[in-house]
Amino acid sequence: DRAMALAESLPTARSRVTRDLHLDEPVRARALAAAFRMLDTGSLRVGSERYAEQHGSHGLSTLLCAHVSVSGDVVSLAFPAKSGQAWESRIVDADLAGVVRGLKTRGGRARLLAWRPEPGDRWRPLHASEINDYVKDQTGGDFSAKDFRTLHGTVAAAVSLARTGPQDRPPARRRALSGAMAAAAEVLGNTPTVARSSYVDPRLVDAYEHGETIDPSRLGSAESEVRALLYR
C-alpha cells in the first residue's frame, strides 16, 4: 500500500514543489523541486554516482545536461539507464522546462541537477540522498523512487484497462491485461513481465478479472480512481 499512500500525499506535495520551482534563483530548493517533478512525471530511477562510474548508466541524480533537451514546454530525456538500456521519454511541464532550460546553459558535461548558494559561487550537484530526503520532506512519508514507479505503472495499467473495458471472454481479458502491462512497461522503461511482477498492483488485475475498472470518464483523476478501486 506504499504507492497508494504516496498517491494520497501527492496533491499537497505537488503544490509545495511548484512553489519551489518558481523560486527566482538556482538555489538548492529549486533543484530539488525539479528532481521531484521529474520523479513524479517521468518515472525515473534516482540512480547513484557509483553506478554511473562503474557501469556508465545514469539515473535522475546523475543525469548530464547532454542527456536532456528542451523545446517549449517539453523536456526530452535520452540516456543510458540501468543495465545499459536506452531510456527515452518526454515530460510536458512548463515549470520544469523553464528550470531545466536554465540549468542546461552550463554545458553538456555538467550534471543537470545542480545549484549554487549565490551568483558567482560554484555549482554543487545534487546527490541521491538529498533527493530522497526532499521526497520524504514534501510527502511526509518514507517514500522512494520505487514507490513513484509502482504508482505510475499501476495507474498506466488501470487507464489501459478502463479504456478497453471489462471483457466477458477469457481470451479477450488476457489480451486486455497484456495490453495494460505493455502500457505500464512503456512508462517504466521495463518489459511487460517485469512491470507485472514488480510494479503493477496485483489487486488491479484481480479487480479486472472480476469485471471492475476505474471510471473511464474520470481518467483525469486516475490516481484517486485507482485508490478508490483498490480499497473497495
Descriptive report:
With 232 residues, the protein is mainly alpha-helical. The protein folds into 2 domains: 12-141, Topoisomerase I, Chain A, domain 3, CATH 3.90.15.10; 146-231, Topoisomerase I, Chain A, domain 4. The chain has helices at residues 2-21, 28-42, 49-55, 94-103, 128-139, 145-164, 170-188, 192-199, 202-209, 222-230; strands at 68-71, 74-80, 86-92, 114-115, 124-125. Strand 1 and strand 2 (74-80) form a beta hairpin. Helix 1 (2-21) crosses helix 2 and helix 6 runs antiparallel to helix 7 (170-188). The radius of gyration is 18 Å and the shape is elongated.
Give the tags:
232 residues; mainly alpha; Topoisomerase I, Chain A, domain 3; Topoisomerase I, Chain A, domain 4; 2 domains; 3-stranded antiparallel beta sheet; two-stranded antiparallel sheet; 10 helices; 5 strands; elongated
Unreliable runs: none
CATH superfamily (homologous) name of the largest domain = Topoisomerase I, Chain A, domain 3
Mean pLDDT: 95
> What would you say the CATH architecture of the largest domain is?
Alpha-Beta Complex
Oligomer: single chain
Shape: elongated
* SS element count, helices: 10
- Identify the strand order in the major beta sheet: 1-2-3
How many whole angstroms does the radius of gyration measure?
18 Å
Structure class = mainly alpha
Profile the largest sheet.
3 strands, antiparallel
Number of β-strand runs = 5
Order of helices and strands: HHHEEEHEEHHHHHH
Q: Could you tell me how far the N terminus lies from the C terminus, measured between alpha carbons in angstroms? A: 13 Å
